[in-house]
Amino acid sequence: MQTSTFTVKGNTGFGLQNRRILQGVSDLRSRNLAGKSLRMTERNSCFGVSMDSASMGIELGRARRTVQTVFGSSAKSRSHRVRAAGEDIEDAAPLKVQGQSSGSVLPYVGVACLAAILFGYHLGVVNGALEYLAKDLGIAENTVIQGKVNVLAVLGKKNILEPLFRCPISYRWIVSTVLAGAFVGSFTGGALADKFGRTKTFILDAIPLSVGAFLCTTAQSVQAMIIGRLLTGVGIGISSAIVPLYISEISPTEIRGTLGTVNQLFICIGILVALVVGLPLSGNPSWWRTMFGLALIPSVLLAIGMVFSPESPRWLYQQGRISEAETSIKRLYGKEKVAEVMGDLEASAQGSSEPDAGWLDLFSSRYRKVVSIGAAMFLLQQLAGINAVVYYSTAVFRSAGITSDVAASALVGAANVFGTTVASSLMDKQGRKSLLLISYTGMAASMMLLSLSFTWKVLTPYSGTLAVLGTVLYVLSFSLGAGPVPALLLPEIFASRIRAKAVALSLGVHWIMNFFIGLYFLSIVTKFGISTVYMGFALSCLVAVVYITGNVVETKGRSLEEIERELSPAI
């Protein structure tokens, strides 16, 4: 709400400019205002005015009223707090209605997205560098092709996928420790964000990201590389929790969906950057150290940028640091928005002085349902098969004659970035829930196409082309909703006192499922066949459609406080 203060000296009325806003007030010129109570109304809005006959003054307390104002051809409703004492209305400054906010959240969203870029970069950088670093560190005595599959088996009559070679245990540790670290980091991020605030957690997050990248760059042994990857995993785990949390809490309601999807977009960009950075490897095998070292740059920039970024006003208000919250709001949205945002925060609190929630509070009757929805969003995301599709996309593309691994990865990455960009433009128009339903429906259809392309004899001449088409359509469908929406939706549906911990718990489910699907996927495919597994993923997508239809609420165009009052009302 905007705050306007004007003073009153005598018994005169409003000037011409004010009469545009409050009609029918001109007759106040002839009235003696002493000892009377007036209510001035314009359309559906009013100011409550109490008169003090002794001082002949007007004192309007901190009353909130809505004034319908018209400027040109546009009409907007705005709330104002008005105060006046001891002076006349004639000399009062006219009530000013601010248009656009004078603040901007975009620079701070950009700083936060450095962590999202690092998230994607650290996940993608090892794919191109692993074969070369394995040779340097002495763990490539055998072929170290992880996940490379027999293309003939993919398209063969047996419908089974067989790894060409088993990976050395040390090799697997280099890959899997990132997921283990991310699991730990996601829970750590939630606790740190609650205790120290969002911006300080970003600064702390830069430590494992930087140290981990440095250890990977300078590693002379497998053990040093594993420790470095473990630390970077902790860093990206913290990032996965804190980036969507911070962006959702500082973004204006009307563009929160668009800005929320920027997180997923920059993760995709980070993966693509890692792909591009790996291009010189074929001509310079030692380039892998430079690839890991480049991650130090955004890590340092993240820490420096967050030093100058405002803290989340919602976290500050939750801590009782009201004046700091007002300062943060002023930097983010402009001083004219301070009263409005503070009013929303006060309304959300509803007079409650609840302490920060503990981990067990997440399972209380008040929060149990909304927390289960958050966990289910990431559970369904992983059961839909995204990692499996991306994992085997190279083999699928080779079956269609695309022999370049870089070209295959670039095609999948481009589809992901394109879909996420489209989702970003639709998030605040189409809505979160509808995009999720469209996304999972498209993923189910794509999985069915992939499954049938491997089994139907009539499709055998076109199996390679259909497999590529199904893969690209699947990734595109995923990036429209199932990819970006969960990380955006979760901070929106969780109450402020549980938001950080609940996001961390949901992301913990994500990393656990990611780990186990990667661990057992090959065994399941070998036993049941790729076509059956893909059909199982299609059924999981349809289950997701049913679950989302019955349980997920639409949050488009609603403030976080409004959503909280509906889903988790104060006791």
From TrEMBL:
Keywords: Membrane, Transmembrane, Transmembrane helix, Transport. It comes from the Eukaryota. CDD domains: MFS_GLUT_like. Residues 108-556 form the Major facilitator superfamily (MFS) profile domain. PROSITE patterns: MFS, SUGAR_TRANSPORT_2. One of its GO terms (cellular component) is membrane. The chain crosses the membrane at residues 105-123, 173-193, 226-247, 259-281, 287-308, 370-394, 434-454, 466-490, 502-522, 528-548. GO terms for molecular function: carbohydrate:proton symporter activity. It is found in: Membrane. InterPro entries: MFS_dom, MFS_sugar_transport-like, MFS_Sugar_Transporters, MFS_trans_sf, Sugar/inositol_transpt, Sugar_transporter_CS. SUPFAM superfamilies: MFS general substrate transporter. It is a multi-pass membrane protein. Belongs to the major facilitator superfamily. Sugar transporter (TC 2.A.1.1) family. Belongs to the major facilitator superfamily. Phosphate:H(+) symporter (TC 2.A.1.9) family. This is Major facilitator superfamily (MFS) profile domain-containing protein. It comes from Solanum verrucosum. The lineage of its organism: Eukaryota, Viridiplantae, Streptophyta, Embryophyta, Tracheophyta.
